[in-house]
Every structure is written in C-alpha cells, then in structure tokens.
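Supplementary notes for students who missed Thursday's class. We covered one full example, reproduced here. Read the sequence, then the structure, then the short commentary at the end.
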Amino acid sequence: MFKNLYPALICSILALPVSGQKEDPLTQRGSVTFITDNQRLPDDAWQSELRGRAAWRNFLAQHPRWVVEFNEDNGKPHRAFGPPIATNGDTPEQRARAFITSELAAFHVPMEDLQAFPTCTTAKNHYVHFAQRHGGMEVLFAGAMVKMDLQGNVIAFGLDVYDNIQPLSVPAVGDDAIVMAAQAGLTDVVSTSMEPAPRILPVPAFRSSVQHLVREVTVNTSGHGIPGRWRCLVDAASGKLLYRQNMVVTENMGSPDDVGADVTVSNAISMSPLNAPVMEVARNLHLTVGGQAFVTDVNGTVASGVSGPVAFNAPLRGDWSVVRTNNVIPTLTGSLLEGANAVTFDADATLQERSAYFHVNNIHDHMKDVLPTFTGMDIALPTNVDLTSGNCNAFYDGSSINFYSEANDCFSMANIADVPYHEYGHGINHTFYQQLGQTYNNGAMDEGYADVWALSLTLDPMLAAGYTISNPGSYIRRYDINKKVYPGDITGEVHSDGEIIAGAWWDTYLQLGNDMTHTMALFAEAYPGVQAIAPSGQEGQAFRDVLLDVLQADDDDANLINGTPNGTAIAEAFRLHGITLLAGFSVQHVPVETAPVQQGITITATATVDFPYTDYLQGEQLNYRVDQGTWQQVMMTNTGGDDYEAQIPGQPTGTVIAYYIGLLDIGDILSSVTPSSAELPDPNLPNFILVGYELKLTENADNLNELGDWTMGMTGDNNSTGTWEFWDPNPTYSTVDQSIIQTGDQHTVGGEYCFFTGNAAETDSLTPGTADVDAGRTTLQGDPIDLSGYTNPTFTLYRWYTNSPP
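Structure (token representation):
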C-alpha cells in the first residue's frame, strides 16, 4: 500500500617434512566430504530470520537473555545457552526429555527418533546426548544435546535433528557397485566390508538439507607402508561416493627391611634427539620372580619376598604398553640375589623400544590425571617400533600405535617423546567418544586434540624438535609463531587445520598464566561436549562449540551471560585463532524518516549484548550513504548501558540518505544488521531519510485518498490465485513453526484496510500457499499524478513481501 508523496527520488598427523613446513599429501589422498564450504561462517541474514520466527521468539519471551546459533540446514538451534532453566525428572535423561518436550515443542523435535547415549557427568555438568534413528535407520551426524548443571537446570541445548525426512527410495544400486564406488581411487586395497543396514545422510543445501539413503563401506588398504581403514558413505540410489575418511591417523610426519630378592628396573631412554638419553625407571612393568607374577611400582621396583638367588623374566610388557619389533617382545632374563637388585633393558632392548615403553606410560599417567574416571585406555596398548614398510612417520590404527625405524634422514619417532604422546592422544580421543556411544568424526579436531595431549605434557610449543638427522632445527609443528586463524587458514588438510584449535588451547594456557593444570581442567570439563562429531569440513562449527563449552567449564554459577572468572582470557586465546561466538543479536532502532536541512541527524540504537559477546564486539556501526554515493562507516558511541548514538552530517534540501546499523565484531564481521540483509551485495532495502522534504499527498487506504483512484487488475494479468484485493487482510502462517507469512495488519496506526494479493478466508487452514500469487501476474495501478509543480518529487511506500516462507 502507498503511503506518502514527498517533493526527490527514492531508490593426524604431524606432517613430516624435512623443512618442518610442508605437508605430506599421502595421508589426505582419497578423502571425500559432502561439505562444500569448509570456511563457512554463520549466514547473518538467515540467522536473523530464524531468530525472528515464532518458535525462538516465544522461547525467548519465556527465557530472556538466551542466545542462539542456529543450524542453518534444519532451521533449529544448533547451540543455545543462557541463564539456568529448571527441569523435572529423576535422572538427567528424564530431565532432558522433559525439557525438550515442554520447552522446545515449537521446534518440532521428533521425540520418537531420539535414542539417548550414556549420560556423561563431570565436576560441573551433566551432558545428555541423543542420536537420531528414523524408521529404524541411523541418521548420520544428527542428534540432540541437553547440558545441565548438577542441580538439573538446563544451561545449553542443541537440536541437530531432522523432522522432515521424506520416505527414501529403495536402493537402486547393487552391493558390488556400492563397493566399487567406495574404493574408487584407492590403491592397494586389502579388503572391504559393508554394513548391512542403510543409513540416512542429511546433506546441506541452501538453507535446508537433502536426505540421502546411503550404505556404509569400510575399505582397508596397505599403500605407502601405512595401513588405511576408510569409512565410506555411498548414495544407495545413485552410487555416488559422498564421504570417505581414513580412520587410521598417521604422524606424517622396596624398603631396606624387605625379605627376599627386590628388583628395580631402569632404562636409558630418549626424550628428544637433541638431548642425550636419560635414565628412567620402568614402572607398571610385568615380570616374574621365581615363577610368581609381579608389577613394578611407580619407582620401577618390585619387593618380591622370594628368597634369592632366584631367576626372573621381564618382557617389555606392562599395564599400559606391550612393545614389539617384528612381532617380538624384547625380554630381559637373569638371576636376582637376596636384597636389592638393579637391572636394565639397555642390552636387551633398543633405545626406541625402551623409549616407546616409557613414553606410553608417561602419557597414560597424564591422561589419568586429566580424566581420572576414564577407563577406555586402561589396556596394554600394542606399541610397535622399527617398522620398515615406511619412514619418517608414525600412526594410530584404532588398536595400536606404530613407529617406523630410523631412515631417510629421520630419527625413529619412538625416540621423540611428543610423537608417542600425540599418537596415544588419538587413542584417547577415539575411545573416549566410543565410551559415550559417539564417533570421533572430525579429522582436524582429532589432529589438533592429539597435539593438545602432547603439548599439555611437554609444556613445549614445538612438536618433534630435531626429528631430521641432518637438521637439528627441524620440527613438525610449533605454536609460538605463525598462528593459524579460522577461516582463512582452513585448507582441508587435517593437520594444518588442527593447528587452529590446538593453538587456541596453547594460547589459553598462556593467557591463564602458564597454568596447564587449570587449562586441562577446562579441557576435561569441555571434552564430553563431543564437538568432533561434526563431519570433516565443518571445523568452524566444531571450534565454536569448543569455545562455548570451555567458557561454560570456566563458569562458576551456571549462568554464562554474567561472565566467568577467566572468560576474558579464554575469549582472547580463541580470538587469536579466529574462533568467536558469532550468534547475532537484534538491534533495536526506531527509523528516522525525515530531517531538517543542514542539521546533524542523530541516529540512536539499543543492543543488549551479554558476555561472552562483549569480548568480541568492537561496537555498533552506522553505515550510510548520501543519494547514490559511497557507503560511509561510523562507529557509534556508547551513551550508557546498551544505548548507542551517532550523527550523520547535515545535508542540503532534496537529499535522500540511506542507512543501516549493525554490530561489528573484532574480526571486522558485521552482524545483526537492521534492516536485515541491507549490507549484502544483493541487498534488502535500507532505511531512508528525506532531508528538507514537505509531505504533500497521502494514501493510507482508510481515510486519506489524495493520490487518486486505484485499479486492481489489467489486461494481460494471468495469475491463477492471489489477485489484488482491497479489504482487511487475514494472516497466514507457516506450518513449520507458525511464523507469519501474510500479515493480518496494515501499516497505518489504527488503520484497517489495505491492498493485498489474495486473502485467505477465516475458515481456511491458513497454510503458506493459501491465496498466494501463483502461475502469473497480477497488477495494481494508480491514477496519473501531475508532478509539474514539484521539485525533486519522491514517493515512499510500505510493502509486505515474502517469497521464501519456512
């Protein structure tokens, strides 16, 4: 409807390079992902629209000051958090289900599809994770999460589930073709196996997703001396390979009064090629004395109580490691005298065998300090050294860690402490997730967190220093220089991408005053957030999830928005690597429509921005242009509390000023723009200010009709529904979330009537397509207007328009 006429114009690896800088592509060859944009940032316009829908608005009305980042593929909250919300139930799972049912019903969560994983309880929180199974089939990379404090109050949730899954076609591709697609492009295939049950894979599309019926195939390879175990997802209808990930991750790089024979085992071991071997005790070692079994204590000692002299036998096997070279376990044998005896493997095991055993014990003890209740790695892990099928590498294959022999100018990685720590870290990552019923999917997270396990034990930002024989200055990665930043440094190579999240943790350690105990306490509290269930290619989402969980780990009152004891330090550490929480906020602003000539124009706005977003915010930014000139940017001044103000310089009569407002973060990203999407290359309309104009004529469709008569319909109109009408509009709503599609009100305050394209009867179901414009054109035309007496005439109008309902 037209309103006014004014006098102007409207318009896993550590890559192992000799230089320490380049990466070995062998570990990435063959990887495939359905994620097409691995540098994706939240779409501010889409996030704003999703926040504006009824489901979130109603939730926010009940629970003020909650913040959300939406899953842009399913239109539901991916992560939302805020002040605690009370729940009911006897167990965390019951409380989580009750919360979803009572508080999140408007998001259409398919409760019948949710299958709970074991609840993980930390020192501060309960994590309840759900998988989604639809029609008996697993929905891959889908699930829900409810995070509660220990009193059962909800402090965060996520709904990465799909309620619009359509019946999927019966597989059209045979098993043989599926297997061929899975192994296409891989060499040295040893074996394949296919899961009997199909899965559902949601593949992101533009602001939506498309579900594919897929078959999961495991392809085992042996190329380049490194075994491969490839997880493959093949479309059962087309035979297209949609996802392939190598699940093998490589390093491309007694008391004096005791009676009987006592023994202490110690060995010379290598911590680094840059330093001489050092003597260390062999703790947790299994041995027999006189046929009786014993285990060395933390001092490498056994007080046997068996009278000497007596024979003993000690394979290089312990509680947490069993060392093998060519499938042979080094073994120390001999005789013990009565009293204290000191023995060593130095003549019976190589330096790399002795070192590998020590390093596995070291990282296992460190893991238990960080995760004292985790038992997934409380096994004698097979530790294989001096492999000759390759060189300059090490890997974890799901059941063992493996190190190549010294060759090709590379020391054996078993002799470099942080490499076994890193490989063992892969084992911690995967088995921790497995105990929670989850899969560690994201390769960059896996490599980055394996580095965190190593860095947190060595307290050294350089990994594998001096690993090449000819270059003592070589290294694989380091975290004190050349910080990797998201999204610009995302390359798709998992080791390089993993440096972003590992670097954020290293800088958290530095920001917390070099306190690794505190840092790893935060790590342990955030670890059950299982952020790495995101597929490879969705690193940005995983990294932001980590930051949110770390901040909540640091929180001391289950209310993140009022700050945390070390929130500023944590936010800064992650910001250094481009990881910030980018959920948008609504900027409240009353548009300025007119202004006097040559007088400064004051623009005011309000934005309620809580911690942690305050740590990422440069401030509010005003963007304006005069007539069709260049856009100008002005930072608005905070005038107290949540209020901001800026001035546009005075302009001559007849000027039209366009403007919009947004929040500018520390990465120079503008978000929460009002009017929404006004900043885009293909923009929505901004606000307009008319300078020095005088209102002459108005049409409000109620009691002012100064612009002549209006004709609805013209020759050539060919639409089937949605013809222009004049009356009181009836609203229509989305069947997805009840957000409004056609308004039920016109613009004029106190007004009733307006022109609209089609009107749903009040008895209709009022679905999105009711009475909309279909199959052609409909026209509304006004009478001719004589503009000969005006200077710079300008028309303004108010319209309600949508072409993309939910």
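Commentary. Residues 1-27, 254-258 have pLDDT under 50 and may be disordered. The longest strand covers residues 208-221. If anything here is unclear, bring it to office hours.
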